[in-house]
Amino acid sequence: MNNFLSAVMVSQGLLPSGSLIDSLIHVSKEVGLMEKVPLVHTRSVSSMIRRIKFLSSLFEEIQETDTPLPPSSILCLTELFSVIRRVKVLIQDCKEGSSLWALIQLEFISNQFYVLVKEMGRALDILPLSLLNVTSDIREQVELLHKQAKKAELLIDPRELQRREQLIQLMANNSLQKKKNKGFIDFGKVEEILSSIGLRTPLDYDGEISKLEAEAQNQAGTGGLIVVSNINNLISLVSYSKSMIFRDGENDRNEEDCKPLSAFLYNKVHDSSSSSQSITLNVPDEFRCPISLDLMRDPVIVSSGHTYDRPSIAQWINSGHPTCPKSGQRLIHTALIPNCALKSLVQQWCYDNNVPVNEPTTEGNNNKKLKEDAIDHISANKAAADAVKMTAEFLVGKLATGSADIQRQAAYELRLLAKTGMVNRRVIAEVGAIPFLVTVLGSQDSRIQEHAVTALFNLSIFDNNKILIMAAGAVDSIVEVLESGKTMEARENAAASIYSLSMVDECKVQIGGRPRAIPALVGLLKEGTPIGKRDAASALFNLGVYNPNKESVVKSGAVPVLVELLVDVKAGITDDALAVLALLLGCSEGLEEIRNSRALVPLLIDLLRFGSVKGKENSITLLLGLCKEEGEVVARRLLANPRSIPSLQSLAADGSLRARRKADALLRFLNRWCSQPHHSV
Fold first, then answer.
1. How does residue 543 score in pLDDT terms, banded at 50, 70 and 90?
2. Cα 464 vs. chain centroid, distance in angstroms?
3. Distance between CA atoms of 40 and 98, rounded to whole angstroms?
4. Which residues pair with 307 in a beta bridge?
5. Dist CA 485 CA 463 (whole Å)
6. Which of 139-148, 341-350, 569-578, 672-681 shows the lowest per-residue confidence on average (mean pLDDT)?
7. Mean pLDDT of 231-256
8. How far apart are CA 42 and CA 627, in angstroms?
9. Phi, psi dihedral angles at 223 (to 5 degrees)
10. Residues 615, 659 contacting (CB under 8 angstroms)
11. pLDDT (tens digit per residue) in 341-360
12. Distance between CA 630 and CA 511 in Å, rounded?
């Protein structure tokens, strides 16, 4: 039975293709040949390579004996293959990634090595050494390795920890000194730290900057704004250090090289005289704003992760551009995050070069005006804001006292006015429009109702207005429109309003507490247009983040509807439906409903092959969750489907980091399940 089981596991793809021992020898040699050890996490990498070489000796001797493997060793060797493959990926990441970022993430990466050592020890727990035809030397070597792995503790090199603390302290002290208008950096200490991690030449510095920029790009748009800011601060430090340490070298870039990148934007906001004066000051390239090419006195980071001078980027976005000038990426928000580290470096450069810190490098009127007009968030000028206020006051008056025709026109105009610009949304709320818009939501005129709910949705995009809308008692009226609005567009925009409002945690609680809100969203999920279904699914996801709401979502019948939407090509909301289903796994009622869906597992297997990156992550999350709760049934259904194991293997090799981790976990679960004798395949 066990021999048959092993053969089935190989044929199903649970074991590496070809010979298991050949695969182990191959991947072990790949790790063993990684001779150039990275200068960060050196001890962890060296120790791990040494362990893999010991195991490689075992695998080679097993191969030389040319005897059949005991069936009980199959599971252990398969587990070891998975561990060694992940060791290889981790070491490659350490070698090819940013050394500086690896130093900052010292504990996190060290813990990854520690986890792999422990997994290696657990795999060796079930290795039947007595049944393997190996020499006593190899047996003793493996037993020693096993004992060491079991006793291993988290390994953090004290020297690397000291370097990391020195780097953090250096930046912290610099920030503190900046507040006292003193900008001193010990470049001798900076050079010592960077040299210790392999940065010794200008080319090394350029390579590190490129790796940090790639890391920042990977983090941008994923909710890691603070991480992106930290990486950009590191880029600024390395760039400035390079210019100071190698200032007499021949690697300095020509100042003219930056001009073509922003010539158009430059012409929009500055005249040619300011450029010539900036070049006269010999400003380092990394201190120049990509828009104006002038010294960045007040550097800020936009949502794309790029840094600009506050007046220039404020003028750029205020003139109607919703994208990052450098990358072309659409800005997901218009908040400007101060780049404190770069600002400190700029202040030190000004101090070193006798440039006034608080005065512009050019005396042009345009530069002064931009400095005066820039504010923390993008806004229109005062005259335009006053005009919006007068218009909004007039429209609110008509909405409050006019006839139905006048109310319809006023609601429509407010809808359009609230559609463009955060300042408009703020001003409309300030003149008291929200309570009157809530009042007319109950109008018998379908167009008034539609315009009013859409205007409220547009206003809710401005975060402060979310609280005002909730305080005006709008939720019940919006739910009424969502449930029985006079037009489908009104219902869909009501769902969009709930989605926008539910971004605030307090609103999740209040909206979820309305007994008709979640059932109305599920109703739109069944009946709406593709846009409406997407808004309803997004709103359900937001509400479901608050745990008590999950049960309401399930009891409203959302699970069968979401499963149907997975195959609804016209709706096109597969990823949204998967995200909600994965969220509902977190409550017992949701797990029960999902478990009862017979059509779900085959759909998830197909989505592992053909879904988007996010879809694959949520699909593997659902499968893994189902296996943990109902392992035998789901495992049988996965093994019965010839596409499941190849899809999981492909995902484990080429998927995103999250998907690879979960695919590996699911493959290990299936291995363990198959290895139990009472399970027939």
1. very high
2. 25
3. 10
4. 301
5. 25
6. 672-681
7. 63
8. 38
9. 85, 0
10. no
11. 788 788 888 877 777 766 54
12. 33
Q: What is the average per-residue pLDDT within 400-413?
A: 88
CA-only gyration radius of the chain, Å:
31
Angle, helices 574-584 vs 547-555, to 10°: value is: 110
Q: Which two tokens stand for residue 40?
A: 């960060």
Tokens standing for 415?
Answer: 């809808």
Which residues are CB-neighbours of 320 under 8 A, at least 6 positions away? none
**Tokens encoding 434:** 């929200």
DSSP 335: B
pLDDT at 321 > cutoff 90: no
Mean pLDDT of 291-316: 84
Give CA–CA dist 450/494, Å, rounded. Answer: 9
| Ordered DSSP codes for 269-323 | H--HHHHHHHHHTT--GGGB-TTT-SB-SSEEE-TTS-EEEHHHHHHHHHTT--B
Q: What is the DSSP letter of 331?
A: P
User: One-letter amino acid identity for 342?
Assistant: L
C-alpha torsion sign, points 157, 159, 165, 167: negative
Long-range contacts (CB closer than 8 Å, 24 or more residues apart) made by 200-209:
202/242, 202/246, 202/249, 202/251, 203/251, 205/238, 205/239, 205/241, 205/242, 205/246, 206/242, 206/251, 208/98, 208/99, 208/100, 208/238, 209/235, 209/238, 209/239, 209/242
The Cα 249–Cα 234 span in angstroms is 22
Q: Which residues partner with 300 through β-bridges?
A: 308, 338
Model pLDDT for residues 91-108, shown as the tens digit of each residue: 888 888 888 888 888 888
Residue with tokens 């069944």: 526
Report the predicted TM-score, pTM, of the whole model to 2 decimal places. Answer: 0.47
The CA distance from 31 to 34, in Å, is 5
Q: In this predicted structure, what is the pLDDT of residue 104?
A: 83
Amino acid type, 388: V
Distance CA 484, CA 477 (A): 11
Cβ-contact 345, 175 below 8 angstroms: no
**Identity at 378, one-letter amino acid code:** I
Rounded CA separation 438/375 (Å)? 32
How many angstroms separate the CA atoms of 62 and 103, rounded? 39
| Token pair of 474 as six digits | 């709008």
Q: What is the mean pLDDT of the chain?
A: 77
Query: How far is CA 559 from each of CA 187, 336, 518, 521, rounded to the nearest angstrom?
Result: 60, 40, 13, 13
Q: Rounded distance, CA 127 to CA 111, Å?
A: 25
593-626 burial code (b ≥16 CB/10 A, e <16): bbbebeebbebbbbbbeebeebbbbbbbbbbbbb
